[in-house]
Each structure stands twice: as C-alpha cells, then as structure tokens.
C-alpha cells in the first residue's frame, strides 16, 4: 500500500480562477495545510480572487503564490516537488477561443497537464492528483426536445459515464487528451488520481463572460440591463452544479485518498 505523507501540502494549478479560488478558500478554512497557488493570472478577474484569498489568510502564513504558466515545465516541476496533493484547474477554458487558436488551447490544456503528470511521476511518493475535465468529452449532449422525448428532466440522464468518449471541439479534444493521460498515468504509473467530467459550474468568484461562465454572464448582463444573445437554436440543455457542491465533492475525494 502507498505510504501517506505525514503532512499535507496542497498545490493548486489555476488557484486564482473561479473553481480554484473556491477550493483554496475551503482548504484554508477547513484544514491546517499550506496552500500553494500556481497561476499565470491570464483569466481577467483572477487577480481579484487572489487578493480575496490573501485577505482571508492574512496572518496565517499558509498561502504561497507562484505566478507562472503550466507550459513552463521547469517551474511546474519545482512546484510539484513539495506537493502531497495537486488540484489541477488551470486551463484555456473557452470553446470559442479554442476554435480561434487551437494550438495554444492544446499546449495549455494537453501540454500543461502532461507537464504536471511528468513532474508527479518523477516523485518518490507520487502526490494525489485531481483533474477537472469536461462534459465536452462525450460529444453530443442533447437538447430539450430529446429530453422531452425520453421523459427526463436533466441532461445527466442522457449522458452518463459509460457513454463512449467522443471529443467535441478543439477544447474538448485538448481536455479529453489530458483526461485520458491522467487515466493512463494512474493505470501505468500508479499515480493516485481522480477526474471530474463536469458540466456547468456556477457560483461566487466566477468572472463569467460570453465565452465562458454563462450563468454568471447572464446574471451580470441582466443586472446591467444588457441584451443577452442566445446562440444555436436555443434548445440546448446543460446541468448546472453549484461550486460549493463541487468543492464538497472534491473534499470527499481528497479524504478518501488520504485514508
Ligand atoms: N466552470 C465550469 O463551468 C467548468 C466546466 C467544466 C470544466 N471546467 C474546468 O474546470 C477548470 C477550472 O475552470 P474555471 O471555471 O475555474 O476557470 P477559470 O478561468 O476561472 O480558472 C482557470 C485559471 O487558470 C489560469 N490559467 C489559465 N491558463 C493558464 C496557464 N497557461 N498557466 C497557468 N495558469 C493558467 C487562469 O488565470 C485562471 O485563474 C478548467 O480546467 C475547466 O476546463 C470548468
């Protein structure tokens, strides 16, 4: 059995983003573990999340911040070296951007994840890794007409984990590649890991815009009396999960792994 390290050391790639900052806040409030955030602050608004976390942890001396890119494998290796748990949320997150610049999307999402896996593989005691993948790995997700036809209320009834993978969009391909690499590193190298294939997450600290984070974008737009454009035929269906519930799910996984 894998020996558990005596002390936790939590590394969060993309820790200044929406999900990452909520998770960092949870770890800071609910444990004594030191938290290392690694983020290049490319997401507009992420600097606000970082300031919020710094205020929250003021005086505790448990928050370390590295402003760097996941494509930088030397910096990634340095960060991973002292981690016992890694939460990987750093990504190019917009399908639209992936269509305009698929190469960068691939280098960040697939290449960045590969850098983290390689760094973790080289460690004497491999750290636990939680990776957030996407429902885009399941291809077509259904619309309200299809839901009505089969008499179910949620897209989760149409798409389940046994459905064959069918990567959709450059973003779906880059995240799906990363997802499969994580699975394979678990299988081949015994890296303890969990992959979440999430639909839409919503909640505080999300700087949603038209390209990504539609729930926040709709709310901000409505509050400012801005017009909301609905693309496609308007029948698309997405399940929404509150970020607090995702954080709860992450903490269950992390407790299971550290038993
Ligand atoms: N929010 C959702 O609805 C949702 C749904 C499915 C999957 N996901 C996945 O969850 C993860 C987190 O999403 P989020 O909503 O918190 O996004 P986010 O944009 O708020 O957070 C991502 C963070 O990663 C950082 N980042 C981006 N590129 C980087 C790079 N090259 N190097 C270092 N840092 C970089 C950004 O600055 C940002 O702080 C992503 O992997 C995303 O694909 C999110």
Could you list some keywords that capture this structure?
8 strands; 259 residues; single chain; six-stranded parallel β-sheet; two-stranded parallel sheet
Task: Explain what this protein looks like in three dimensions.
By secondary structure, this protein is an alpha/beta fold. The chain is built from ten helices and eight strands. The strands form two sheets. A six-stranded parallel β-sheet has the order 3-2-1-4-5-6, with helices on both faces. A two-stranded parallel sheet has the order 7-8. The structure holds nicotinamide-adenine-dinucleotide. Residues 14, 16-20, 39-43, 46, 69-71, 89-93, 108, 112, 132, 134, 175, 198, 200-201 line the site of nicotinamide-adenine-dinucleotide.
Under CATH, the homologous superfamily reads NAD(P)-binding Rossmann-like Domain
Number of strands: 8
CATH architecture: 3-Layer(aba) Sandwich
Domains, number: 1
Stretches where pLDDT is under 50 for at least 5 consecutive residues are: none
- List ligands, each type once: nicotinamide-adenine-dinucleotide
User: What is the helical fraction, as a range of percent?
Assistant: 40-55%
* Overall outline: globular
Strand content: 5-15%
H/I helix tally = 10
CATH names the topology as Rossmann fold
**What is the structural class?**
alpha/beta
Largest sheet: 6 strands, parallel
Question: What is the H/E string?
Answer: EHEHEHEHHEHHHEEHEH
Strand order of the largest sheet: 3-2-1-4-5-6
Distance between the termini: 11 Å
């Amino acid at each position: 059995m894998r020996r558990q390290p005596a002390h936790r050391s939590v590394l969060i790639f993309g820790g200044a983003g929406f999900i990452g900052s909520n998770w960092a806040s949870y770890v800071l409030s609910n444990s004594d573990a030191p938290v290392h955030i690694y983020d290049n602050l490319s997401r507009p608004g992420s600097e606000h999340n970082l300031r919020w976390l710094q205020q929250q942890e003021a005086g505790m001396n448990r928050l370390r911040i590295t402003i760097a890119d996941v494509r930088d494998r030397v910096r990634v290796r340095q960060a991973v070296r002292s981690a016992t748990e890694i939460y990987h949320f750093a990504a190019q997150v917009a399908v639209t951007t992936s269509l305009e610049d698929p190469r960068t999307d691939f280098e960040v999402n697939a290449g960045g994840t590969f850098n983290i896996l390689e760094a973790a593989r080289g460690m004497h005691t491999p750290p636990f890794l939680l990776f957030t993948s996407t429902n885009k790995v399941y291809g077509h997700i259904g619309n309200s007409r299809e839901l009505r036809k089969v008499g179910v209320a949620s897209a989760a009834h149409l798409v389940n984990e046994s459905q064959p993978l069918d990567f959709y969009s450059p973003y779906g391909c880059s995240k799906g590649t990363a997802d499969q690499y994580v699975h394979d590193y678990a299988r081949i190298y015994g890296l303890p890991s969990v992959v979440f294939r999430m639909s839409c997450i919503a909640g505080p600290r999300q700087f949603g815009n038209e390209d990504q984070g539609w729930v926040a974008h709709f709310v901000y737009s409505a509050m400012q009396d801005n017009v909301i454009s609905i693309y496609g035929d308007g029948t698309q269906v997405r399940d929404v999960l509150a970020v607090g519930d995702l954080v709860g799910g992450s903490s269950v996984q992390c407790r299971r792994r550290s038993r």
